Amino acid sequence: MYPTNLNKIINLFESLPEDERRETLVSYADNPKKQEPREGENFDLVDVRKDEECTDTVGVYLHVDKNGRAHIRMTRSMTAILCKGLEGSTPQEILDLPSDFVTRIVGKELVRIRSQTVYYVLTRIKSICKVWLHRQRMAQVA
Question: Considering the entire predicted model, what is its pTM?
Fold first, then answer.
């Protein structure tokens, strides 16, 4: 149901008591540089914008390798979990992903505070994957 990397993250967070869950979330949020675009990387699609749903400008960078696997980079701290969890998934797997995993990671107590950002960014990631898939289908028809 979930990509392998995301399932590992879900299992980790579900095994943690609430206070350790928060500390682990903060740890992920403190390492956003690891998920940002790196010098020399090429991307198939780039979507950088500031939307009403988010106080910061968020960049979503997608590269799909020759094996059809997605590699996502982001410029926002709480999105590191999504980048790590979706690494190596296909764009279609990302589109098909149910969003119920957010509460499994964040926990019910924190879901009201931080989850809107994660849901919003997941929607952006799905959107860029949908555009990529559409372009691939159009290229095959041409």
Answer: 0.78
User: In whole angstroms, how large is the CA radius of gyration of the chain?
Assistant: 15
Which single residue is written with the structure tokens 């988010």? 54
Edge-to-edge strand order for the sheet containing 70-74? 45-49, 58-64, 70-74
Residues 77-103 as b/e (b if ≥16 CB within 10 A, e otherwise) read bbbbbbbbbbbebbbebbeebeeebbe
* pLDDT (tens place) for every residue of the chain, 142 residues total: 889 999 999 999 899 988 888 888 878 766 667 788 989 999 999 998 876 766 777 889 999 999 999 999 987 656 778 888 899 999 999 999 998 888 888 776 665 555 567 778 888 899 999 999 999 999 998 8
> What does residue 15 show for φ and ψ, rounded to 5 degrees?
-85, -10
